[in-house]
Amino acid sequence: MNRIVDLQQGDRLPFIQLDPVSRLDLIKYAGASGDFNPIHTIDAEAEAAGLPGIIAHGMWTMGNLAKIFTPHLEEGFIQHYAIRFKGMVFLGDVITLKATVVEKQDKQVTFEVQAANQSDKDVLKGELVFAF
Amino acid sequence: MLKESIGKRSDKVKNTIERGAVRKFAEAIGDPAPIFIDEQAGAASRYKQNIAPPTFPVTFDAGKIDGLDLPSKGLIHGEQIYHYERPLLVGEDVYCWMEVKDYYEKSGNFGEMGFLVVVKKGQSPDGELLFTEERIVIINEAARKGMAV
């Protein structure tokens, strides 16, 4: 496994592709996070809100995206993690998590982080600072 | 009325980072790594304890801001920003509160949208700031008109 300290600008951490999003994923996240907004778990509620179906919690995807860095937590920690929610995630979507080095300093490395769906559209995008 | 909420804050609430809650959360984001859930791995780590995933503060109770009653419908989560001084440790107490940092309106394709910036902060029992969680919520016109404030 590459160490983050050895990465250079433009380097990427290995992509992670998630299993297709399931209803159970979202029910589990609702329970663990305490976010019981029914547009994430109940079809009729999602449709009443004008959606074609239930959508993932944005924070479910943001939570998943951070796991690219989990194998590196012995090296440092996530100091800053800023995300803009850009698109909805539906049941069955296949999300790929990505992180690319944009800036390297002595004490920290800044990454561009993205979660993209099966059409290669970013659903989440932002910046993460990993500090040593 | 949302504009008037700028600067308002909630009272601090004590939260204890429970091992079971961290495990359940780590599993729910598909990341049940030893550093989060295995007691021995935590003790052997550089943190000497299991840590919580970075988005775990969504579970913290940060109290209520007087007069800020958001509608349950018509809200869009726009942005979420975490900043940490260090990772949060399993077993520690964190005192959390919320502040309304900003509110502004912008015209867009879907009418006049409101942007509410709410910051949740967490302190150690000694008063040391551990993290901030900034959330930008977009509120559409229909939902704002429905707010009975």
UniProtKB/TrEMBL annotation, chain A:
Pfam families: MaoC_dehydratas
Superkingdom of the source species: Bacteria
Alphabetical list of InterPro entries matching this protein: Fatty_acid_synthase, HotDog_dom_sf, MaoC-like_dom
Residue span, MaoC-like domain: 19-120
Protein name from the UniProt record: Dehydratase
Natural source organism: Planococcus wigleyi
Automatic annotation (TrEMBL), chain B:
Pfam family, one: FAS1_DH_region
SUPFAM superfamilies (UniProt xref): Thioesterase/thiol ester dehydrase-isomerase
Protein name per Swiss-Prot or TrEMBL: MaoC family dehydratase N-terminal domain-containing protein
Species classification: Bacteria, Bacillati, Bacillota, Bacilli, Bacillales
Organism expressing this protein natively: Planococcus wigleyi
Gene3D superfamilies, per database record: Hotdog Thioesterase
Domain FAS1-like dehydratase: 6-132
Superkingdom classification of source: Bacteria
Xref: InterPro entries: FAS1-like_DH_region, HadA-like, HotDog_dom_sf
